Amino acid sequence: MPINILMPALSPTMEEGTLAKWAVKEGDTVSSGDVIAEIETDKATMEFEAVDEGVIGKLVIPEGSQGVKVNDVIAVLLEDGETEADISSAAPAAKPAQSAPASQSASADVPAAPKPAPAPQSAPSSGGQARVFASPLARRIAKDTGVDLSQIKGTGPHGRIVKADVEGAKSNAAPAPAKAAQTTAPAAPAGPDTDTVRKMYADREFEEVTLDGMRKTIASRLVEAKQTIPHFYLRRDIHLDALLKFRSELNATLKERGVKISVNDFIIKAAALALQDVPDCNAVWAGDRILKLKASDVAVAVAIEGGLFTPVIRDAEIKTLSRISTEMKDLAGRARERKLAPHEYQGGSFAVSNLGMMGIENFDAVINPPHGSILAVGAGMKKPVVGPDGDIQVATVMSVTLSVDHRTIDGALGAEFLAAIKGHLENPVAMLA
After folding, report:
1. Which helix (H) or strand (E) holds 233?
2. DSSP-based three-state secondary structure for 220
3. CATH class of 3-117
4. What pLDDT, on the 0 to 100 scale, is given for residue 136?
5. pLDDT tens digits, residue range 192-218?
6. Nearest 5 degrees, angle CA 328-CA 375-CA 379?
7. Which residue numbers are catalytic?
8. Which secondary-structure segment (H or E) carries 329?
9. pLDDT of the residue at 13
10. Using CA atoms, how far apart are residues 187 and 170, in angstroms rounded to an integer?
11. pLDDT tens per residue across span 147-185
12. What's residue 16's pLDDT?
């Protein structure tokens, strides 16, 4: 029977996307792994590959369509011997509501998306035995390797067996798990509706800005963070003079290699080492438990036009400062072009948000769930301080604030973690040991 190709969830926060471009047309033959479309998520434009092989029978959603919901039917794939006449048997494929604009998706005139058909493995065939639904490629591999398709649970659309399922069974691995349910951030709390707010400013000139996918995600994630995470805040002043002197000397030796280490690179390294010093803070909240991570994966907030990304420096505790600097420049550059892959901005237990380069002396950052904490970094400022002998000195002081999820990290533990970050930054040479 025809296969419904569904709008994929290409990131954990994706609820809908824009079908930017079709890479195929009706009548084209595709194989598993072929790129068939470009889809704009809330974070980036990504290529979407075919899971099965067959002929594109119908493109249900035209390219350029915005607000296409995850799991909506976007195209129909025909198997060997099937024709366009068979498309009507693919349950929701011909529903015109699938291509309705996002602005009309809640209209009473648009029918609700039909419920998916029952798992096809349970459909009886004419012979009285359960019919096994599998892609032609999966059937071919199963025949060549002697794998019994009836013993495999499919992970394709509507339980269809695909290539990966057969290969998993062949290698005696556990069957590939069914696609996890989409995790979505809660909607913003109810407030004045659009018309009510418009009326409040009816006598004032204004420009109305439609929210794009990234802005919607930022809004819902911040609401989720402030409503569900019990934040508390720890503040310290860090003296930077030793670090600035060491950084200047280090950059002089790295000049020929074209590497220039920033203060932010030192902060990333210091935080990574501190997570190893205080491993109970290298943790995330996981609903009904805490996950303690082994490696120090540090996320770093990068401002882009219309929003921000938090690319992750993985295994930062074992990387050199020059390696961290090079990776951070690459990730930040591609973040601004919206060309990061999901695995490059997902994960980590901790984040750094640095507004010091913008002149901000101190601020409180919002935790990015499921992270356990985030460090808000202010600018290094020349200030009078009391020296060890009681005399007044001028020092470069940077104010930092650690926002902490109290479910994951208690106050004393957070204080120990922040003290470890301060210790590494005020004794930067030891970070190279």
Report:
1. strand 231-239
2. helix
3. mainly beta
4. 65
5. 888 899 999 999 999 998 887 778 878
6. 80
7. 406
8. helix 321-336
9. 66
10. 43
11. 887 778 777 655 778 777 777 776 544 444 444 444 444
12. 84
